[in-house]
Amino acid sequence: xxxxxxxxxxxxxxxxxxxxxxxxxxxxxxxxxxxxxxxxxxxxxxxxxxxxxxxxxxxxxxxxxxxxxxxxxxxxxxxxxxxxxxxxxxxxxxxxxxxxxxxxxxxxxxxxxxxxxxxxxxxxxxxxxxxxxxxxxxxxxxxxxxxxxxxxxxxxxxxxxxxxxxxxxxxxxxxxxxxxxxxxxxxxxxxxxxxxxxxxxxxxxxxxxxxxxxxxxxxxxxxxxxxxxxxxxxxxxxxxxxxxxxxxxxxxxxxxxxxxxxxxxxxxxxxxxxxxxxxxxxxxxxxxxxxxxxxxxxxxxxxxxxxxxxxxxxxxxxxxxxxxxxxxxxxxxxxxxxxxxxxxxxxxxxxxxxxxxxxxxxxxxxxxxxxxxxxxxxxxxxxxxxxxxxxxxxxxxxxxxxxxxxxxxxxxxxxxxxxxxxxxxxxxxxxxxxxxxxxxxxxxxxxxxxxxxxxxxxxxxxxxxxxxxxxxxxxxxxxxxxxxxxxxxxxxxxxxxxxxxxxxxxxxxxxxxxxxxxxxxxxxxxxxxxxxxxxxxxxxxxxxxxxxxxxxxxx
Length: 555
Description:
Layout: E1 3-7, E2 18-22, H1 33-38, E3 48-51, H2 70-73, H3 77-80, E4 85-87, E5 94-97, E6 100-106, E7 111-116, H4 130-142, E8 153-159, E9 162-167, H5 175-179, H6 186-189, E10 209-215, E11 218-223, E12 235-239, H7 244-252, E13 258-259, H8 266-271, E14 277-291, H9 301-310, H10 313-320, H11 358-367, E15 371-373, E16 376-379, E17 382-383, E18 385-391, H12 395-411, E19 414-420, H13 422-431, E20 436-439, H14 447-455, H15 472-482, H16 487-504, E21 508-520, E22 524-525, H17 543-550, E23 552-553
Helix pairs in contact: 9-11, 10-12, 14-15, 15-16
């Protein structure tokens, strides 16, 4: 019988103790390779056609550490490569031991030791071992370009089936980032001259699928014959859709099995048309506008504050997001209600305006020396222009941006909406070639991961710190949070960071983001739902692997 595990210990305990909870589902980190081998199927189930990001074109690239590789943009990394632990943002109490079977903290949170799972093979049939894990973390330690989440690694050691990671500061609240690293084979990657630019066109991983085919229409993966768990899906197809309308058409006509898009009116066009059509929108993150802190005018505090005061969060949620995402009500950006237990009475005072406060926004600008002339503000001969950009095929964000343009023009910004291509937007994010853009936050299991991904100096601009904040005082605050071993301690330590976000506007929260799931259960059952929160329903990595391994073929 399959088992999932719930971490029930305090994180400062000597060992990780887990509680097994029976799900009645085979194939999810429960040591069920034998069950997989013995199972007899009468017919091969059809392929799973899934889409997590609309891409007009992709290359044959599978480097899991590159933000613009096909495996990353299409959301297939965790189906090829795997982490030590899998997490469930829809139910943060659930933790899945994966390539690691146990872990324990040491040295006051400055080290963690993982017990590595035995009996796992790479997809080429060679044995996986703790040496591969140690190699991967040493690779991150020696190659900063690969360490996109900014792990403060100071040492990596291996002894038998155990791997110990050491850090410069306590990391109790950073387990998600530490254990979510994709493990790569030492036998292959150690021969690569530059892992940061390696295309990895023929990937070898421990995941449930292997690369099968690439063409202009997308990428196909087939089941890994050496996989260590039960997997009832024989093939996964990742098609390229150039627009949201193309993705929606594929969903409605049954060509696509599983998507994760914002689709206006989806409840009517899809949810109510068939008993086999499933919708699930777990609130798991915080959407925000990211101002470029190194480019005028968004490098000005008064401008950022005026933007926050001028936007209409209620309309963004109601119109831009079709009522599927609620407006942010706390200016700290803390994801609510998911992290309500961390919201102290002091933090509750950081209330957010959910409708525009035009007079207040103008007053902030005037106090900073801006003068309203005609329709727009000027300062030192410069007009207050503002470009808001996002990929034009991100239909909800593009709509959100359009609403913000209208509201900010009413304040006195000469705001302009810029529709970008996916590749153009990724490039602008990486090199800072934008002024204001909207994006979701890291789907996190605790507030530390949320804020660290937003604000930490050692997080790359392509991985989450889009605004490129470099503030030693904030890094010190984050370190103080990571050192906490209790919820109460973390909530108290979060207060300075919450105040910083609420008053300095390094990010400007808009709505509480959902993990969109639109699925067709004609061929596969046991999808996640509000009543079955074994995982969020997003078809993106890494959580999509957990969902795929839960799926059961019909008949």
